[in-house]
Amino acid sequence: MNFAGFADEAGVNINTQIAALTELHWHGIETRQVGQGLHFDDVDDATFKSIKEKLDAAGIGIVSYGSQIANWARKITADFKLDVDELKRIIPRMHATGTKIARIMSYPNDNLPEKEWRVETIRRLKELVRIAADNGVVLAHENCSGFGSTVERTLVLLSELQSPAFKLIFDTGNPLHHGDQVMPFYEAVKHEVIHIHIKDYTTDASQKDGIRATFPGEGNGCIHTIVSQLKKAGYNGWFTMEPHIASVIHEGKTDNRAKEMYDTFVKYGRIFEALYEKA
């Protein structure tokens, strides 16, 4: 069973992340933060080597680089060079860790007209996909922040890019954040999905966004249905846990609750294991 985690939700320190995955007996990590405010893609060579050695010693492989490319913090008006440089920096590291996938997003808008946003997003992604293809890696677009946050615009990206180096990550919770229904979104794009993020939400009027993160299967993310379909289809990719319950890394919400973060992550993983077995 290919279970992994954004283990920075168990703790921002890489040693804590390894401990949580080891407790679950899991052998995959999707890298993101490896220290307070420090993204894995931004570490120097010595730190990369040290982290790789720790992961290797623990028998944990990097299943995907959870990159910052085109993400929530890099709007369409941001300097494109940031993304090109990050991709070129991580490609040799991906080769070193035997990792095929880098997670990307697709540029949140910054008050551009829709057509202009679309054209510039596609221009940038085409260049990034070309670099990825030339170097034997795959950019896997997550249905999160940016142009491809909706099913209609994700289909536009697939139509425009059409490359073996451009595939999809489906996050089970994110459609609920962007006004889409989970199953219609999934059914429309599943033929290009190579990786799954497990996240779940339920409606909650007391929350700012009207939704609240839950343990897998307790919300409206249709996780049981999607996992069941994937199992029947012979899916052999990875499932990455992204709880967003005790911590939301990209919002800086860790609140010095180290034990709660760790325990929540491990509990989340065990609940998903049980769900997977029943699906």
UniProtKB/TrEMBL annotation:
Family annotation (InterPro entries): IolE/XylAMocC-like, Xyl_isomerase-like_sf, Xyl_isomerase-like_TIM-brl
Natural source organism: Candidatus Raymondbacteria bacterium RIFOXYD12_FULL_49_13
Gene3D superfamilies: Divalent-metal-dependent TIM barrel enzymes (3.20.20.150)
Domain Xylose isomerase-like TIM barrel: 21-247
Protein's recorded name: Xylose isomerase-like TIM barrel domain-containing protein
